Every structure is written in structure tokens, then in C-alpha cells.
Amino acid sequence: MTIIDPLTFPPGFTWGAATASYQIEGAAAEDGRTPSIWDTFSHTPGRTRDGDTGDEACDHYHRYREDVALMADLGLGAYRFSIAWPRVQPGGSGPMNQKGLDFYRRLVDELLEHGITPWVTLYHWDLPQELEDAGGWPARDTAARFAEYAALVHGALGDRVRHWTTFNEPWCSAFLGYASGVHAPGRQHAPDALAAMHHLLLGHGEAVRAIRAADDQARLGITLNLYAISPADPASAGDLEAARRIDGLANRIFLDPVLRGAYPDDVRRDLAGISDFGFVHDGDLQTISAPLDLLGINYYSRHVVAAPDPDAPAEPYWRAPTSWPGSEDVRFLKRPGVPVTDMDWEVDAPGLTETLVRVATDYPGVPLYVTENGAAYVDSRGTDGEIDDADRVAYFDAHFRAAAAAIAQGAPLEGYFAWSLLDNFEWAWGYSKRFGMIAVDYATQERTIKASGHRYREVIKRNGLAE
Ligand code: IFM
């Protein structure tokens, strides 16, 4: 028996896919591009799985026409991609590089010719190395450099692009980049990570101000990676406290300044032993909380957390650098029986509904977009050459339903971008993790649409699920 379960999305709902410059472009030293922190990091022995780098990646720089044709084949309404700062402004200051800009102009024109709306992310982690050498995100001046770069990119593409997000996942840039150091630039210093966080947000606010002043048609936002957070035992005061702390560091420390104009008091108290937040200058929070037209939410999984193990030896934070300054002792647990992806992340679609409804309730008034959602799995090719990625199909399906449930509960969700269009360079994991709806054979650069891509085409076509 076929069960008909019509889950139709609102008219005009945006269906897209997302990528990021360093993960797909390649052409790392072409047409004037200079190294970013990810070039330096990935070329440093021991930093990425198998020493993988983004030197060639998916060679999208040369194959963008083929890739846009694939997007059109899937029926995408929008494509979210990022600009490589060192490609368009080598070294991170001074004049723009025309050849770098021309690449993005050609890409945008190709998208528009295929009826696909371009969504630009201004920063998806490729900070010009020279700016890191000058202090990186812990240095306040980097925010000013970013705002200048953002205004220049907008000046070059603003006639063709309406949708702009400043940063992708500033949590990762600040805490993976400067606290645990598992991402570029690979530093481990919690006070610097907090300064980095603030300067990323300041750069966001200053860029919004600059673009808004130049363009009253621009739709402006930021993308945050938000998590559903649960205490391992909801009856345990210690686990509830762990959940409060991690929710503070993962979610509220970004949502509150951007959407309420203040850092949360409880989180500042948690962090008092690490930083006095002296990096916050008068007027910063007003800049950071400039009104937005949209909030991008990247959702992948849930954190289930528990109180510190009372038998574990107390470690000062600098001896055990993690991505959670001040809460290094919180335990992150896996629930028995809950399936995980190839990243070892629990599959938790209800967490997407929870996250969207929570943001809509606690921070009302801003349209929401899922700007990333997807899963890494080990794919295998059948004898017919097809890739039947049933796990990924199921993951997407569950999350489409979760998104629909959030809309039904009142969340102002206006679009969804699958991560990712293509298999690509998964940062410290190199090419060992595949997130694409389209497989990439890195030896030949051949692309193959997986079953999840074919399924996405159907969902887009009917603006929802029918079964
Ligand atoms: O590949 C990343 C992306 O660059 C940012 N969001 C999470 C994805 C999967 O890890």
C-alpha cells in the first residue's frame, strides 16, 4: 500500500544547494590568487587526513559551466557559494584582482542564464595568510579589512547578486581555528578564540552597514551553525547545567549579539576566568546587531551532553585545548542505537525542527533559511555505474519532513540548501568524507549524480514530498 503523505512547502520556497570556495574551486595559485590560511594549514604535515589540500579540489574554477549545467539539471532555484577572499583581493588589502573577480562574474552570469539565483557567502574560512600573519581574527583590524573587502566585492557583483551572507559558521572560525586548532590557522589559545569570535561578529556588522548603505535592494544575513542540545539525563541537575553551558557556547553566544545586541550574561560569567571581554568597544554591539533580512542556519546534528566526570583529574584549559573554552570538562555522549553518519554525527532530524522553532520563538522577526544540511556517507558504485546512496536519501528525506514540521509550527522558514552539491574537500578530513549529491571522481574529475540528487530533483519539482 502506498501511503500518500503530502508535505507541500509554501509557494516560492527556495530550494538550493551549497558549496564553499576552498572546498571545490582548486586553481589555488592561478590568476593572481594568493594563499589563504587553509593553503598554509593543509600544506603543513599532519594537519589534514592523508595530507590532502584544496590545490585542485573539484576543479570547479575551470569546470563551473559543467557544474551549473548539473545544478540546472537538478532544478535548483538557488546556489549558495563563497568568494575566496585571496582570489579577489590578494593579500587581504589593497586593490581588487580583476581576474579573480571575473571568475565570479562569469559564474554568476552562468547561474542567471540558467535561472538559478546566486547566494553569495563572503567568508567561508579562507582568510588571506597575510592577515593571519598580522594577527588574524583575534586582531580587531581584521574586522575592518573584512568590511572593506565585503564592500569591494559588493561593488563588483552587486548589480547581479541580491542575496548576501557575511560569514559562514563563525563558531568554526573562532573555536576550531583558535581554541582546539583542528582548523586553520591551527592556534590553541582560548582568550584569542573569544577575541576572534567578537571580531568576526564585528566584521559582520560593519560589512552589513557598508553594503546596506550602498544597496537598499540587498538581502543581508549571516549563517550560524546551530545545534539542538540535550542533557543526557534531563533529571540530572549536572547534565542540565552542561546543556546550558554548551547551548551558550554553541548557539546563544552568536544569536544573542546578532539578534539582541548583547552577549548572554550567563555565558560571560562562564568565561570570566578566560576573558574579561575587553575586546568589546563602545558601539560594537549596536553594529553587530544591525537589522538583518535573513538568518542562515546550518544544521547537522544534536549535542547530547553530561556533567563532568567527578573522577577525571582537573585540567586547566590550556593543557586540554578543546573547542569549548571554559567547558572543556563537559562530556559529549552518543546515544546507544541512534544512527550516525560517516562523520560520527548522530542523525537527529527532530533536532532541526527544534532548532528552527526555538530560533523563531526566542529571536522572532527574521526570515530563516536552512543554508546547509546534509550527511557524509561512504558511497559505493553499482555495476551499472549508479550510486544508490540510500542512507543520504533517508537523511535528506527526514530533514525535509523536519523542515516542513517547523513551518507547520510557525517557523518563518523560506528556503533550504542541501550540503553539498558536490563531494568536496572536507577540511581536516580531506577527501575522505563525501557529502555530495553529485559524486566526484578526483582522479578524472568526472561527476555522477547520486540517487540523492535524483531524489532532490523530484522534491524540488513538486515543492515537497508526496510519499
Ligand atoms: O563542509 C562543511 C562546511 O564547509 C561547513 N559546514 C559543515 C560542512 C560539513 O562539515
UniProtKB/TrEMBL annotation:
The keyword Nucleotidyltransferase does not apply. The active site is at residue 372. Its EC number is 3.2.1.21. It catalyses: Hydrolysis of terminal, non-reducing beta-D-glucosyl residues with release of beta-D-glucose. Pfam families: Glyco_hydro_1. The keyword Transcription does not apply. Keywords: Carbohydrate metabolism, Cellulose degradation, Glycosidase, Hydrolase, Polysaccharide degradation. Signal peptide: none annotated. Belongs to the glycosyl hydrolase 1 family. PANTHER family: GLYCOSYL HYDROLASE, LP05116P. This is Beta-glucosidase. It comes from Dactylosporangium salmoneum.
